[in-house]
Amino acid sequence: MAQDASAETMTTLPSADAKTSLSHRLFECRNLSLELVVPLTPEDMTVQPMEDASPTKWHLAHVTWFFETFVLSKHLMGYRVFDETFNYCFNSYYEALGPRQPRPRRGVLTRPSAERVVAYRAHVDEGLRKLLASGFDPESDVWRLIEIGINHEQQHQELLLTDILSLFASNPLRPSYARPAPADAGIAADPVSWIAYEGGIRAVGHEGDGFSWDNESPRHSVLIHPFGLADRLVTNAEWQEFIRDGGYRTPSLWLADGWALVNREQWQGPLYWEERDDGLMQMTLHGLQPVEPAAPVCNVSYYEADAFARWAGKRLPTEFEWEIAAAGLPITGNTLGSRALRPLPADPTGIRRPRQMFGDVWEWTASSYLPYPGYRPPPGAVGEYNGKFMVSQHVLRGASCATPDGHSRATYRNFFYPHQRWQFVGLRLASEAV
Fold first, then answer.
1. Which of the residues in the chain have pLDDT under 70?
2. How far apart are CA 404 and CA 25, in angstroms?
3. pTM for this predicted structure
4. Among 123, 196, 244, 384, fewest CB within 10 Å belongs to which?
5. Where are the domains of the chain?
């Protein structure tokens, strides 16, 4: 979800105020990563619970490697690389930058230690301060690369939390990452309201001066048919109805690949749900907790979301329907800054507009992750970030309870494979014209 910088994005020398703002955001982001690991032990930071997840220590080092490789090594004169072996250890998938530790085996990197990774971060942060104190060549790409680095680290802050949840869910002791705030298990979700949207030729994609990833462009026109969108997310209580009605046992509700997966993996409910003697429980960042009926359902795959929508007599929205509904809405919600660290029930409201569009859970859409018309991957190694993944995945929109504040926007395109469900992912329903 990144793009390479070019001289065309830097036509004037950044002002002193702009540099101060960039520096503040950079180190606010860098400090947040360290704050997020405070509850963890060195042992917690080393283990990799599954192939999709990465150890906490690896996340901390990888985002630091990004700044060292793409910013400091190219743009800070006299910069000394901290450790030449780290390029192998902490490169993720940049083929242009050489061989790397295979993703499924990041957990065997017991060395370097967590302590050395923290020292690595301090070394790179010192270099970044020196760079920011220097003058920028107006033709350089430093500014854009730092912006990319900030947004890249924010993505890994969310991954860090979802991967810790995966790790702790695999631990028979069911440890807690954070102390839970009281949940009102007795609250009931208000009924779904349906909001109608007109069809027509509509412009979608990013425009303007703010940051965006390359996969959000070019802005282009799409044909939209009249549609309806649910004003809130699907809840745990509604998902329980789906289960009780045989949702996981009815092949006619499922796409073929999804039905094969349900049978192969013996899925009976969302990831992290457990039937216990004391009731239905869910593994969370607060440990094992009762499932909250009015909260959005979470940790479901695209296959499950699609099957639920079919069971409900509805469908998933396309990514462009979602974007049109989100355009102009406040980009606020239950994101990381709230520190709830779990999806929360929708606030009752008399305002006729979609709720929970930014926060709680990322929302599956019916859209395949494909390039927009006219898209070209940016040149250079950083350009590997998006374009080569535009196949066999589905687009998610919005943000989650683990997304850093200010990271998302109406045009943001997240993407995962349809079987994946360890992220904070859920759904809202759509329909034809209402």
1. 1-17, 136-140, 182-186, 350, 381, 384, 434
2. 12
3. 0.93
4. 244
5. 7-170, 194-432
Distance CA 64, CA 122 (A): 9
Q: Please, what is the angle between helix 16-36 and helix 114-133, to 10°?
A: 170
Per-residue H/E/C for 67-80: HHHHHHHHHCCCCC
How is residue 386 written in tokens?
């998006």
What amino acid occupies position 251?
Answer: P
Going by DSSP bridges, is the β-strand pair 362-368/394-398 parallel, antiparallel, or unpaired? antiparallel
What DSSP designation does 417 have?
Answer: -
Spatial distance between the Cα atoms of 14 and 32, rounded to a whole number of angstroms: 25
Render pLDDT for 93-130 as a digit per residue (tens, 0 to 9): 888 889 999 999 999 999 999 999 999 999 999 999 99
Cα distance between the two ends of the chain: 35
Q: What residue has token string 């994609």?
A: 205
- pLDDT, position 350: 65
- Strand 279-284 vs strand 287-290: parallel, antiparallel, or unpaired? antiparallel
Residue for token pair 């020398």:
13
Give rounded-to-5 percent helix, strand, coil for the chain. 40, 15, 50
The DSSP H or E segment spanning 66 is helix 56-67
- DSSP letter assigned to residue 124: H
Q: Residue 43 CB: number of other CB atoms within 10 A?
A: 9
Residue with tokens 């890994």: 156
Residue pointed to by tokens 């606010």 = 28
**Amino acid identity for residue 36 in this structure:** L
Which element (helix H / strand E) includes 362? strand 362-368
Burial class (CB in 10 A: 0-12, 13-18, 19+), 235: buried
Give the Cβ contact number of residue 94 at 10 Å. 19
Alpha-carbon distance of 403 to 32, in angstroms, equals 12
What tens digit of pLDDT does each residue of 142-169 get? 988 999 999 999 999 999 999 999 999 9
d(C-alpha 146, C-alpha 186), whole Å: 46
Q: What are phi and psi of 86, to 5 degrees?
A: -70, -25
CATH number of 7-170: 1.20.120
Q: What's the token pair of residue 357?
A: 């569009």
Is 194-432 a CATH 3.30.70.240 domain? Answer: no
